Amino acid sequence: MSSLMYDPEKRISPEEGMVHPYCVQFHDTESVATADKHVESTPSAAVPSFQVTENYMTEVNDNKKLETKMYRTMLHQICDAMPKR
Amino acid sequence: MSDDIDKHVSRRFEVQQKLGKGAYGIVWKALEKKTKEQVALKKVFDAFQNSTDAQRTYREVVYLLQMDHENIIKLNSVIKADNDKDLYLVFEYMETDLHATIRANILEEIHKQYIMYQAFKALAYMHSASLIHRDMKPANLLLNSECLMKVADFGLARSLNSMLSSEDRMDTMTDYVATRWYRAPEILVGSTQYGAKADLWSLGCIFGEMINAKPVFGGTSTLNQLEVISELLGHPSPEQVASLKSTFATTMYENVSGSGSESGSEGGIAALPEKERKARFVTKFPTVRPRRRPLTRTGTERCRLRAAPAASHPPCPAAPPAAPPGTTPAVATTHAYRCLAARCRRCPHCRDRFAASAMVAGTVPASKTVPTAGGPAATAGAVASASSFPPLLLCISRACALTMRARSLLPHTRRRRRTRLIC
Fold it and tell me: Which ipTM value was assigned to this complex?
């Protein structure tokens, strides 16, 4: 319940949550994974084999909404670049 | 908006069942022919109708492809539709979600604990990748019969990195609509600098909903949402309002009507004393005891110590296929759940854990969960509380049978049940 606090700083963190008496019985320090890199919003971050064909594709960020057709082009190129299984 | 599946898609997948349909698109349960893998095939209608939808789909795809965690849904592939408008997304298949499970009233104490643990674990991973989900809600937490939980729907997620580095941050965070009931106060008051802790607020709401089987804060508008929150937490103190980091916070809270505490003449409504706040929590969540002592550093260390020997423990005889050498991280946690669920007392490791859990879980007797509203759900609840730690598997398939959903699960259940009886 310590996550329902007004002050975001005072809310429980996920790391504290895992060792909270309520769920500590499942806790395993070794199985806790942290990501090895930060997420990025460029298509190349998602699919390494992505072919950058336009300039905007290297500068996608969350703060700017692109034109619809740019998203479409990128998603379609992601489809093509997905590793075939 | 057609339900048809393009030929090149149906060549790869054998569609088995329609799982749901909404304005966004349609989801089927399907079998990938080549790998024989069960998948959820989602067809997004007109994914590029406007830039908001297109961005949503784009985020979901790009972020999910970068996630690799057992508690985050896996996006197997993305497929173009012939008409250039729709888009197919192929996810791993999960049987149900937390929303349905809460409504069916089948969650036992142990399931709630396990779900909370997995949610914390998923968030720890996500936040370490500086991604915030922003739309944590029961319907987005998918579950399977092993009580394995996976976070889904990253359409509103965004990376914290770009938030911090952006110069024009001020107008960027405002134009999205996440589910109001789970929205953190700082988002409600229009803060532009909120961070990862917003997800923790949502998780708190989800926890409360699991406990009480109904939403904690069911506001009908943004302002009403703030009022409902104040009813439980009290009116925020000036420091708390400041901590929300929004220029509108003060003005908005002036419009939030009384929260049961006395109004000051000048400074608006007085903040709730800590003691009173706790008392309200006890009234609101009668089945949860407040922590007796705050979880201090030593408390945390103690918990860590208790959990530490996990890695080196011998394989439990009761564990269905014993953890293979070079074990994946998931195994230990799943194993702990299975043993607890099966009340395995043979394995020394599990016995320790069982004792620890009994200590924690014992404060809340399983039978004292929220009374069911009658009807089929009540029967399910009664059956569930008859045995102490029923595997969610049994409960889920019962719920499925009740909702006429995935009837094919039942034979599978019986098989599973027998394995459990052996241990």
Answer: 0.92
